[in-house]
Amino acid sequence: AAKGAGRNRVRVFSPDLRSAVEQKVLVAAELQEAIDDGQLVLHYQPVLHLPTGDVTGVEALVRWQHPQRGLLAPCDFIPLAEQNGMVVPLTRWVLGEAARQTAEWERAGMPLVTGVNISAAHFGTGSLVADVHDALEAADLAPERLVLELTETSVAEDPLRAAAQFAQLRIAGVEVAIDDFGSGFSSLSQLVSIPAGVLKLDRSLIAGTETRRSESAAAIAAVVGLAKACGMRSLVEGVETADQLALVRELGCTLAQGYFIARPMPAAQLPQWLAEHGGVRHSVGSARLRSA
Ligand code: C2E
Ligand code: MG
Ligand code: MG
Ligand code: MG
């Protein structure tokens, strides 16, 4: 099964371990090539603002159009990129492309706020603030148009350093969202100390309503209430049915995202999707976009 296992080599590692190491090196080199050759693409998933029914934003989700392996999902290469350091150059590309696309949509009368996922590994490097600044400047995009999606892990590793970076991002005018909240270890004490604008509830929370409806609804209501008390908007991820959408609306959630609303799509498809779904009816400006 190991790649190159048939070749004549000194067995330093067990075959499985060696193949894992080789694969990591291979993916690092390949990823650099992917960035340089334009093999990475962003798909965008609409975010629905529940009080108005407007699509006010999108989340940028990276895919790798691999020359041999086809279209790869983030789970196929992001974890490796996080281990071998490639996630930083990859994210620079994502930030640049997302900012460019968001500015293009805005010029075309579609003012959207775009979420970009940031790995804990990148948050820890200290170059994030500069990378965000560079992307905004190159695209001539206002900082309010970007939201950086961070998981709690980013904060847990080095809370002091994280606080300093949050402060810098706030000064730069870029909003932060806490991603996947409610999965794994969600520290409430940490949450109240993070100056985030949006709390994204992990999709396991809404998925739970299918089997344990009242308990899961209570959990969502509690987190939505907590977000509100902390001055954050709440966003439920993974809304897959009309019933779930109705429920999150009822529970007072501000924003929703999920396959029932729309699947992630290539940038070229978004304008038509918005036109068909009555999104961005509000060419009135950004005030409404940012109102909770
Ligand atoms: P995430 O940031 O939590 O993104 C949401 C994921 O849930 C996306 O998967 C999206 O396609 C999927 N999703 C959305 N709605 C539904 C739904 O209704 N049902 C289900 N089952 N899934 C739904 P995707 O695109 O495969 O991305 C997976 C993860 O990979 C992301 O989770 C994020 O952590 C990471 N990722 C994606 N793009 C990037 C990137 O540019 N940089 C970094 N560092 N990570 C990224
Ligand atoms: Mg995300
Ligand atoms: Mg998420
Ligand atoms: Mg997730």
Q: What key phrases describe this protein's structure?
A:
19% strand; alpha/beta; binds magnesium ion; 13 helices; binds ligand C2E; 292 residues; 8-stranded mixed β-barrel; disordered N terminus
Unreliable stretches (pLDDT < 50, length at least 5) are 1-6, 280-292
Q: What is the ordering of alpha helices and beta strands?
A: HEEEHHEHHEHHEHEHHEHEEHH
Mean pLDDT across the residues is: 87
Q: From the helix content, strand content and strand pairing, which structural class follows?
A: alpha/beta
Helical content stands at 40-55%
Characterize the structure shown.
This protein has 292 residues and is of the alpha/beta class. Helices cover 46% and strands 19% of the residues. The chain has 13 helices and 10 strands. The protein has helices at 15-36, 78-84, 87-107, 120-123, 128-139, 152-157, 159-172, 188-193, 203-207, 213-229, 242-250, 270-276, 286-290, and strands at 40-49, 54-66, 70-72, 113-117, 146-150, 175-181, 198-201, 233-236, 255-256, 265-266. Strands 1-2-4-5-6-7-8-9 form an 8-stranded mixed beta barrel. A hairpin with a 4-residue loop joins strand 1 (40-49) and strand 2. Helix 1 packs across helix 2. The radius of gyration is 20 Å and the shape is globular. It binds ligand C2E and magnesium ion (MG) (3 copies). The site of ligand C2E has 24 residues, from strand 2, helix 3 and strand 6.
